[in-house]
Amino acid sequence: MLQFFSKFKFLAMVLFVLSVIIISIIYQIKNPKEVLPIFQPAKVNAELVDSTIQHVKKYHKIADFSLTNQNGKTITQDDYKNKIYVADFFFTTCQTICPIMTDNMAVVQAKLKNDNDIMLLSHSVTPVIDSVPQLKKYAIEKGVNDEKWNLVTGDKKQIYQLARKSYLAVKTDGNGDEYDMIHTENFILIDKKKRIRGFYDGTDSEEIERLLNDIEILKKE
Questions:
Q1: Are the beta carbons of 144 and 151 closer than 8 angstroms?
Q2: pTM exceeds 0.70 for this model
Q3: Is the dihedral angle over the CA atoms 80, 83, 89, 90 positive or is it negative?
Q4: pLDDT tens, 53-89?
């Protein structure tokens, strides 16, 4: 008799475990986990992508870099290692979309000021004009937190290649200079594996809210 109940107890445990697994599967089907797409050059507007990588359909990542920030410090990919970050392209003398973009990046900075896993990175597309003192002046005016947000300048060719071959974020101006750039309003969301996970209109407050929401989704991956 005891042996019979012992076998029954085992069967009950097995049925309980199976029930938990089935309920869990049903829950996941009805409530799928939100996952952000991984953007590849082949799926981005060709105007924003260098012709040499427009065919790339997988494994795209942000290339290594070495630039100089508003404090004269060298900033490399190591400063963003294991970080989620938002990147954009701008120039300090821009009087059109840049002030709006910078103000909205400041909103992102304020919303995430206590989250050490999130950083910001703004690249100048006029690095000759945007010297370290010029970037520092701009950073002070815009309330940049040096621990969280780097405004960077450097070699124009490197910035161009990052923009066109890594971040897929700027157009060429077609005036004959192969490294001249027309920056867009895009904010680009980069994950901890250096992959592009989203593009957002940096002049649109609703897009900024979408960016903040997507950051929360990305943090859960």
A1: yes
A2: yes
A3: negative
A4: 999 999 999 999 999 999 999 999 999 999 999 999 9
